[in-house]
TrEMBL record:
<protein>
    <submittedName>
        <fullName>Amidohydrolase family protein</fullName>
    </submittedName>
</protein>
<dbReference type="InterPro" id="IPR032465">
    <property type="entry name" value="ACMSD"/>
</dbReference>
<keyword id="KW-0456">Lyase</keyword>
<dbReference type="Pfam" id="PF04909">
    <property type="entry name" value="Amidohydro_2"/>
</dbReference>
<feature type="domain" description="Amidohydrolase-related">
    <location>
        <begin position="3"/>
        <end position="284"/>
    </location>
</feature>
<dbReference type="InterPro" id="IPR006680">
    <property type="entry name" value="Amidohydro-rel"/>
</dbReference>
<dbReference type="InterPro" id="IPR032466">
    <property type="entry name" value="Metal_Hydrolase"/>
</dbReference>
């Protein structure tokens, strides 16, 4: 079972602004219009890549970017294809009622996780305004996928890129399962070290796994293995910022000597590969 743990819903003309699409897609080599994942394109991409299931993300950046991919839009896609999608709500703690919006999305709309975009919202993920949201997620038992790492979005605040900003949150909410997106790129080593300090932390490989060189990806996975956190990493693409087929093939090559691993490190075992490609993600969203 292959699960892409980081997939963006939303359609170019309907949701995203052209300005945002221009900035975000410039670093991917894809045209701005490629920032679009209508239902048929999503399913075709998954089928072509052999991806069984995806975590499908809403994205609320209304306050800063003037658009959102609404929770209701994601919930609708999930309701039509419950076997293909697990939906993640998105809320902005800088707006009133964020925690209630999350509760509604989970209990009424059937979403099963939360995606947050702190640096895009020019807030630290440790800003106290998030705490009621985290408290609610912890109580509802849903994981929180937090953007960490670099983004080319011009309105974002680079002071809030670092995955280490999540340490106080992990301490304050020991039952809250947090997923650090993009392995905190470029702070991948500190991100893995942070996972080793808190057993409820996870990280996804989206963007990092696609755009970094295979030896760089192998080195990060080798470090995660040494730290004992390899079984808390989730494969994901960040589609449509990256395509799925090439990313699946790249991960498969990490099970062989085709990728140069650091000396003393063996390629991924079949069990490790299975966990990365979906086993861990399946475990994470089970109630
Ligand atoms: Zn993303």
């Amino acid at each position: 079972m292959i699960i892409d743990a980081h997939v963006h819903a939303g359609e170019y003309y309907r949701h995203f602004t052209a300005r945002f699409a221009d900035q975000m897609m410039a670093t991917t080599g894809l045209p701005p219009e490629a920032l679009s994942a209508p239902e048929d394109k999503l399913l075709a991409e998954m089928d072509a890549a052999g991806v069984d299931h995806a975590f499908l993300l809403a994205f609320d950046v209304r306050r800063v970017e003037g658009f959102s991919v609404p929770n209701t839009f994601v919930a609708d896609l999930c309701a039509r294809h419950p076997e293909r999608f697990t939906g993640f709500a998105s809320v902005d703690a800088g707006r009133p009622g964020a925690a209630e919006e999350l509760r509604h999305a989970v209990t009424e709309l059937g979403l099963r996780g939360l995606k947050t975009a702190p640096c895009y919202l020019r807030m630290s993920p440790a800003d106290p305004r998030w705490f009621e949201v985290y408290e609610t997620a912890q109580e509802l038992g849903v994981p929180v996928l937090v953007h960490t790492g670099y983004t080319p979005a011009k309105n974002a605040d680079a002071r809030y890129f670092s995955p280490l900003l999540l340490e106080p949150v992990a301490k304050e909410f020991p039952e809250l399962r947090l997923i650090l997106a993009h392995l905190g790129t470029p702070w991948t080593t500190p991100c893995i070290d942070l996972l080793s300090r808190h057993p409820q932390l996870y990280a996804d490989l989206s963007i990092f796994g696609t755009y970094q060189s295979p030896p760089t990806v192998a080195a990060a996975l080798a470090h995660a293995r040494v730290r004992g956190v390899l079984d808390r990493l989730l494969w994901g693409t960040d589609f449509p910022f990256a395509t799925m087929s090439a990313a699946v093939a790249r991960m498969a090559r990490l099970t062989t000597d085709a990728t140069p691993w650091p000396s003393g490190s063996a390629p991924l075992t079949p069990d490790e590969h299975r966990a990365l490609m979906g086993g861990t993600a399946a475990r994470l969203t089970q109630k």
